[in-house]
Write a structure and sequence with these properties.
Length: 335
């Protein structure tokens, strides 16, 4: 009888373990001890003034349970201030945060480099400057939204965590827009009509996705597949202007198509590979608990997204040089 009662009792909440030097800390700081468990586990005394405990999959709140193959290393129940400080704590989000933070710096540096060196050397027009600024700005927004989500997903408030998740998705749409803008602009450089048609349709689709995100069901588990389908169609729509562009250029024999089409294919290959990792949770699915900190699918997805954006940016520079050096063919102007 006693045994049954014992098992039916919920376990007591974890009690903060107060380190001896905590007694010397000001009272104001001690108040935050309600929300975190202080302890020696994963304690980084130099970088974080107060340790942030890591939790196992079973201990985290439901809204953080997305990947059962990542069994440990979760930050949870943190106030905003400690979410920010946790950037220096080794957790299962460390690689996710830093990969896109470095990605942000990469695209920021590329923007500075483009504006000060690449575009002036290429004799770029004002339009070129605008297009590259938009493209790289979108990539930077995408990176920062992702950093924000991975930093604040462990917030003690579910509402705050979900808001950041929504922003992460909005960031992905913005990143996709950043691919479309220079792609469509340079592919249809010689045909203003189709350039406008595709830019407007892409913009309309991105806006539609933004509005879909406001739907209360958008972030729920039930909409998991629909969410993936929405982002896949947003990316796959790019095949429509690509095929149209090949057709307008008279097929695969044209020099322009031969130069640029393989680059589009590589971009889609990286995107498909990234999405495959994202959706399949491979490789941690086969090594549950062994890739908690390094080597998990989401980390591969992050790195491939940076690689894809970088590849596409370099391709846009390539096609811009081509367009500046070669006159517009008549068949494109009249199409
Ligand atoms: Zn992410």
């Amino acid at each position: 009888m006693h045994t049954v009662l014992f098992f039916r009792q919920p376990p007591p909440p974890p009690r903060p373990i107060v380190r001896p030097d905590d007694f010397t800390m000001p009272q104001k700081v001690l108040k935050s001890a309600h929300y975190i468990e202080l302890g020696s586990y994963q304690y980084w005394p130099v970088l974080v003034p107060r340790g942030i405990r890591l939790y196992t999959y079973d201990q985290i709140p439901g809204f953080l349970k997305e990947n059962p193959y990542i069994t440990d290393g979760y930050r949870a129940y943190l106030p905003s201030r400690l979410c920010i400080k946790s950037i220096f704590v080794l957790s299962n989000e460390t690689v996710n945060i830093w990969s896109h933070l470095l990605g942000f710096f990469l695209f920021f540096s590329l923007e500075v480099y483009d504006m000060t060196a690449v575009l002036p050397a290429a004799g770029a027009s004002r339009e070129d400057y605008v297009i590259y600024s938009i493209g790289l700005f979108c990539f930077q927004v995408c990176m920062l939204c992702s950093v924000g989500y991975h930093l604040f997903c462990c917030h003690r408030s579910e509402k705050t965590s979900r808001r950041w998740a929504a922003l992460d998705y909005a960031g992905i749409s913005t990143g996709i827009l950043g691919c479309y803008v220079p792609g469509v602009f340079y592919a249809f450089y010689c045909n203003n009509y189709w350039r406008q048609v595709y830019l407007v349709t892409v913009l309309a689709m991105i806006l539609a996705v933004f509005f879909a995100q406001i739907h209360p069901q958008f972030l729920t588990q039930q909409w998991h597949r629909l969410r993936s389908a929405i982002f896949c169609s947003l990316a796959a729509y790019g095949l429509v202007p690509t095929i149209h562009w090949v057709w307008l250029n008279g097929g695969f024999s044209t020099a322009m198509v031969q130069a640029f089409f393989p680059r589009v294919l590589v971009m889609y290959f990286i995107a498909a590979l990234a999405f495959l990792f994202y959706i399949s949770k491979v490789p941690e699915r086969y090594f549950p608990g062994q890739l908690n900190y390094l080597g998990a699918s989401h980390q591969v997805w992050h790195i491939l997204v940076v690689l894809m954006f970088y590849w596409w940016h370099q391709s846009a520079i390539y096609i811009m040089h081509y367009r500046h050096s070669e006159p517009c063919p008549n068949y494109m102007l009249q199409a």
